[in-house]
Specification:
4-stranded antiparallel sheet; Outer membrane efflux proteins (OEP); 6 strands; 12% strand; 2 domains; 61% helix; alpha+beta
């Protein structure tokens, strides 16, 4: 009996039905298609705290507060705890179940009952007291339990990667909204500055009208131009308030909490001169959404083994020991002890094809998750390529706009001087001022977009989650 049990345990320790997981090999290009210029360099990218390259202490403080206050992060941390508890549940099946039992029963048997006593004179009450311990252990011959543990452990790792992916998205979204806020504030400042300039042009036309040197048409054109520019200010102010509210929500705070802190205008963060990006093969290892998709595929592969184990008999060892007596004081003693021990098995010989159908279901789900993984890699490659080209091309646009703004400012000055001297029509002044406003606004918007495209690049590369590695490992 002992030799048979030992042999069964040795066999159970080494046998697991179902496929063993092999990480899929997804082909990635050797280099990015976008030529690395505009400050982009190939090398080992430092992505853990990428927002610090913008050298903005306010942004860094907001990121630190979001790390603890953001509600989406708190949700994902709770999901990690849930997955960890699920792993404990699955691992608990590797060990025997021990149950303590006890009953106290009092009954009477009468001659009128369905089981009459042989002695009609005896018609008294009887008590039975029983206590014991029962144990059942499934011998995991086919690896059903171990495959379940594999699946639960991989689900747990996927939950961690989901939390990391939320961090990547959160930090990028926070930085994007912050840069957008500073961009809107600069555009508002430009509009207000142009209002002052156009007010000067209106005063000039009114003065020339009073002196009989210009028609009323010039005054009305100047008024229209000024009012048009003034009408853009409320829209900027509304967008600024919306951005501040959005940042507050990302920090897990009430919308109005950051008004005093963020309302004062500040400069748009400046991108660094050099940005180091990795190679595509490293990118696959960095992106937490790709890592999560791979872990889910691994978990689902283990579930094929769980389903396959149902084709075979399930073996168990059981045992119990207990005491039974009519008096509670007689429970302690060898004469009242009862025990049992032995093996058992259960084998489903016919189920109408349900087990094999379940195996096919798990196979199909595995195939789906394989395609999800491959698609996630492709979408990630697309995101990086788009961010690279967006960052490079927007820098070119920004530099071109900067030259155009310088020329338009000089053109507006010359047009006003010529009009004051009576050498040109007022329409030239209007055109020059409108062009200057449009170009200055476009330049500010482009400067902000360069930075947001850089943020998108860091997000596409999977930066930001590495900072919280210690926090997850400490059990949060």
């Amino acid at each position: 009996m002992r030799k048979w049990s030992l042999a069964l345990l040795v066999f159970a320790a080494g046998c697991k039905v179902g496929p063993d997981y092999v990480r899929p090999d997804v082909a990635t290009p050797d280099a990015w298609h976008q030529e690395l210029n505009g400050g982009l360099l190939q090398g080992t990218a430092s992505l853990a705290r990428w927002w610090t390259v913008l050298n903005d202490p306010v942004l860094e403080g907001l990121v630190a507060r979001a790390s603890t206050g953001n509600l989406d992060l708190q949700i994902t941390l709770a999901r990690i705890r849930e997955a960890r508890a699920g792993l404990r549940i699955a691992g608990g099946e590797l060990f025997p179940d021990l149950d303590a039992t006890g009953t106290a029963e009092r009954f009477r048997v009468t001659e009128e009952g369905p089981f009459p006593t042989p002695d009609p004179e005896r018609n008294d009450d009887t008590s039975i007291f029983e206590v014991g311990i029962d144990a059942v252990w499934e011998v995991d011959v086919w690896g059903r339990v171990r495959r379940s543990v594999e699946a639960a452990e991989r689900d747990y790792r996927a939950a961690i990667e989901d939390q990391r992916d939320v961090r990547v998205t959160l930090y990028a979204e926070l930085a994007r909204n912050y840069v957008n806020l500073r961009t809107l504030q600069e555009r508002l400042s430009i509009a207000q500055s142009n209002v002052a300039t156009q007010q000067g042009s209106l005063d000039l036309t009114q003065s020339r009208l009073d002196m009989g040197l210009a028609p009323e048409l010039h005054v009305r054109q100047a008024e229209s131009n000024l009012a048009t520019t003034q009408s853009t200010i409320p829209a900027f102010e509304q967008a600024i308030a919306t951005s501040i509210n959005r940042i507050a929500i990302l920090l897990g705070e009430h919308p109005h909490r950051l008004n005093e802190e963020l309302s004062p205008q500040a400069q748009i963060p400046m991108p660094p001169e050099k940005v180091v990006v990795g190679i595509p093969s490293n990118f696959v290892r960095q992106r937490p959404d790709i890592r999560a998709a791979e872990r889910r595929l691994a978990a689902q592969t283990a579930r094929i083994g769980v389903a396959t184990a149902d084709l075979y008999p399930q073996f168990s060892l059981f045992g119990s020991i207990g005491w039974s007596a009519e008096e509670i004081g007689d429970l302690i003693g060898s004469s009242s002890r009862v025990w049992s021990i032995g093996p058992s098995f259960r084998w489903n010989l016919f189920d109408g094809g349900r087990v094999r159908g379940n195996i096919q279901v798990q196979d199909a789900r595995t195939e789906q998750l394989l395609k999800v993984y491959e698609k996630t890699v492709l979408l990630g490659l697309e995101e990086v390529e788009n961010a690279l080209v967006g960052y490079v091309k927007e820098q070119h646009r920004r530099d071109t706009l900067a030259r155009a703004v310088a020329a338009s400012k000089r053109a507006a000055e010359l047009a006003r001087e010529a009009y004051a001297a009576g050498l040109t029509d007022f329409q030239n002044v209007l055109d020059a001022e409108r062009s200057m406003l449009d170009l200055e606004d476009s330049l500010a918007e482009s400067r902000g977009r360069v930075v947001t495209n850089l943020v998108a690049l860091y997000k596409a590369l999977g930066g930001g989650w590495q900072e919280a590695e210690g926090e997850l490992n400490n059990g949060n």
